[in-house]
Amino acid sequence: MLSKLFAKDGTKSVIASLISIFFGLVVGFIIILIFAPSEALEGFGILLSGGFYRGTESFSQMIYLSIPIMMTGLCVAFAYKTGEFNIGVPGQYLIGSFVAMYISIRWTFIPDSLVWIVAVLCAGLAGALWALIPGFLKAFKNVNVVISGIMCNYICLLLVIQGIKSTIYNSTGAESMTIPESRSLPRTPLDSLLSTGDSNLRFVVAFLIAVGLCILAWIIMNKTQFGYELKAVGFNKDAAKYAGMNEKKTLILALATAGFFAGVGGALPYLCGSGKTLQITEVLPDEGFNGIPIALLGFSNPIGCIFAALFMGYINVGGNYLQSLNIAVEVIQIITGVIIYFASFTLFIKHVFAKHEANKRKKEEGKV
C-alpha cells in the first residue's frame, strides 16, 4: 500500500517540496552560524517558530503575508498550464493594487459597506486586461510572453506612479494615501480574536477570498472543458489545434484569468486595514516575483499554492523576529531568499524520482 502511495504523482510532489524546504533551512542555519555564531541555535529556533513565535500576533502576520503571494503564485501556476511563463505578474499585481486603492479612496458614491467588493472585482479586471497585452502578442504575433511581460511590468510601474501623483497622492510623503478603515474589508470576530495590541488587520475575509479562488482555479483546471483545453495546449499546441481546439483563444483566456488572480492579489493586502501605501519608487513589488517560487513549490497546483504561500509567510514572520537578536536585516533577507531559491529545486528532485523509477522499471523488465 505504501509503494502505491509513493508511486502517486501528488505524493512525489509533496516529498520533493519537503526535501527542497529541508535543504533551504539547512543552508539558512549555516548562514546564521556564519554571521551570528553565538545566537545561531536560538536564531534558528526563532526562524522555525515562525508564525507561532508570538502566538496570535505571529499567526495573523503569517496569514496576512501569505495572501498576496498565494494569488501571485496562483497566477504563475495557472498560466504555466498553457506552457507559458507569466513573468508579467508584478505588473498585473501592481495595477490591481492601484485600481483597488483608487476606487476605495475616490469613489465616494459607493457605500462604505460595498466599496471593497467593487474594488476587488475591478482590481481583478484590471489585472486581466493588463495580462491581455502579452496574451494577444503571443497568440497573434508569436511574441515571447517573457519578453512582453517584462516590458509590460515597467510600463505599468511608470503608469501607476503617474496615476498616484495625479489622483491619490499623499503630499506629506512620496507615497499614496491610505484606504480609510471604514472602506476596508469587513472585520470579523476572528479578526478581533487574532489581532492583538494596536493591530487592525482584517485578513480573514481576504484569506477566504484567496483560498476560494485557489479552489475555483483547481475546479477549472480539473473539472471543466476549458481546463482540459488549457492543459492540452500546454502539452502540445499543434496537437490541440489538430484536435479542433482554438489554441489562441485558450492562451489568451488563460493569461487573462491568471492576470485576474494577480490583480485580486494586489488589492487584498491594501484593503486589510494595515495602512499599507503604494510607494512612488521605480521598484516592482516583491510579491509579484515571489509568486514564481510559490508556483514551483506548489508544483503549479492551485491547492499546492495555498500551502506554499502559508509556508513562505511562516518563514518570513520568523525571519522578521530574528532582528530581536540584532541579526542584520540583510542576513534575514539572504536566509529567506535561499529558502525561496531552493524551492526551484522541486522540479529537479521530481525529475530524479522519475529517472530512478524508469531505471527500476527497466531492470524489472530485463529480469522478465
Structural class: mainly alpha
Helix fraction by DSSP (H/I, runs of at least 4): over 70%
| Outline type | globular
Side by side, the strands of the main sheet go 1-2
Oligomer: single chain
H/E element order: HHHHHHHEEHHHHHHHHH
Number of helices: 16
Per DSSP E runs of 2 or more residues, the count of β-strands stands at 2
Radius of gyration: 22 Å
What distance lies between the first and last C-alpha atoms, to the nearest angstrom? 23 Å
Unreliable residue stretches: none
Q: What's the story with the biggest beta sheet? A: 2 strands, antiparallel
Structure description:
The chain has helices at residues 2-7, 9-35, 40-49, 56-80, 89-106, 112-141, 145-167, 189-194, 203-223, 225-235, 237-242, 247-267, 286-297, 302-321, 329-343, 346-367; strands at 169-170, 175-176. The protein is an all-alpha fold and 368 residues long. Helix 14 runs antiparallel to helix 15. The model has no long low-confidence stretch (mean pLDDT 86).
